[in-house]
Amino acid sequence: MTLTSDLREPTAGAVARPARSPWFAVAAVGLGIFALVTSEFLPASLLPGIASDMNVTEGVAGQAVTATAIMGAITAPTIAILVPRLDRRRLLALLLALAVVSDALVALAPWYPLLLVGRLIIGVAIAGFWAMALAVVGQLVPGHKLGRAMTVVNLGVSLATVTAVPLGTYLGDAWGWRPVFWLAGGMAVVALIMLLAWLPPVAASGAPPLRALLDTARGRTMILGMVAILLVAGGHFAAFTYIRPAAERVPDITSSSLALLLTIFGIAAFVGTMLAGPLADRRLRLGVLVAPVLIGSAVTVFALQSGSYGAVAAAVGVWGLAFGGLPTLVLTWVARVEPNRLEPAGSLATAMFQVAIAVGAAVGGVLVDAFDVQVALVVAGIAAIAGGALFTSARRF
């Protein structure tokens, strides 16, 4: 069977295996994630230019990121309900096409409200793609290789984290912010072509999506897991959002040494992603405890060791290493807990990650304003460690 010759819908829960290795299909999903996450992160590096052209403040321009997260939190748990029977290959292709539309709309937007519409569309694309990724990959590879497969997918996140902001900053200064979004749209087109070439048809789960979502959400273990995601990811984003003011407490820190800290974080996150797959497949219970504990401990050390750049750099490296592995570990945990409900379980996990982004940044901001950045980071670290304890308290995985 080829990717194009069989036009019939596959039966529920089935995947039409291509002649080539399924790892090409997994890589196509990872490439799609890379294109989408790159588009998500770009505004952070282009805010001054966007604000100037749109005649708004940088704070208002920054709401383009918030809009994406909010739309993602709405989309993730509802995408399977809206398209319960659509072949998942077609759905992922449609979501990448939406990303192309979003990037083009942002690049062309003459005023800020239209730009926000474009960012809402990318929120739908990112969350929908993420929500389906676990279920799709789960049908492509055997269960004992799911951790490694999710590592390939999550490499897209790590690469986007390392490259999107610095590349966006450099190209934005050289070309202006609008051409950067055109470039992002071109990347999404390439990802779409690769997805259509490499990913075989993948059927929907076959279960009634609303009932499956509600049944999954009511499970005690999943409830613990969702709270754990909120604590760990929320703690991370509460701290990472304010990494710059926290780092600026280090004596004599410069813009170049601050950039080095972010580079250390990005490289460490990439390494963490690579290590997480084998750990998820072999020692998952250990992984979902160690990663949050390392995140929390590193954030706390970062908060309390402001007098030494070396200690701060080491803490940031450990932080990045642990956080880089977190998505693979968490999604593998979700798959172990709900192996027969991958779509609703993946949707709930994706939605909670989006909520954690918004809540973490908001709570961190409140703590920074009410106390100081050191208090915010310590609270964030405690939250992450508590989340790790919750993950391991579940018996069924």
What's the helix and strand layout?
Layout (H helix, E strand, L loop, with lengths): L21 H33 L3 H4 L1 H13 L3 H4 L5 H21 L3 H29 L5 H30 L1 H22 L10 H10 L1 H21 L2 H5 L7 H28 L1 H21 L4 H29 L4 H29 L2 H21 L4
Helix pairs in contact: 1-5, 1-6, 1-7, 1-8, 3-6, 3-15, 5-6, 5-8, 6-7, 6-15, 7-8, 7-12, 7-14, 9-15, 10-13, 10-14, 10-15, 10-16, 12-13, 12-14, 13-14, 13-16, 14-15, 15-16
Task: Please give a structural write-up.
Pfam families: MFS_1. GO terms for molecular function: transmembrane transporter activity. The protein is mainly alpha-helical and 397 residues long. The protein folds into two domains: 22-198, MFS general substrate transporter like domains (Growth Hormone, Chain: A); 209-393, Growth Hormone, Chain: A, CATH 1.20.1250.20. Helix content is 81%, strand content 0%. Residues 1-13 have low confidence and may be disordered.
Instruction: State the low-pLDDT regions, or none.
Output: 1-13
Using only C-alpha atoms, the radius of gyration works out to 20 Å
The percentage of residues in β strands lies in under 5%
CATH class of the largest domain: Mainly Alpha
Number of extended strands: 0
CATH superfamily of the largest domain: MFS general substrate transporter like domains
Pairing-aware structural class of the strands and helices? mainly alpha
Largest sheet: none
CATH fold-level topology of the largest domain = Growth Hormone, Chain: A
H/E series: HHHHHHHHHHHHHHHH
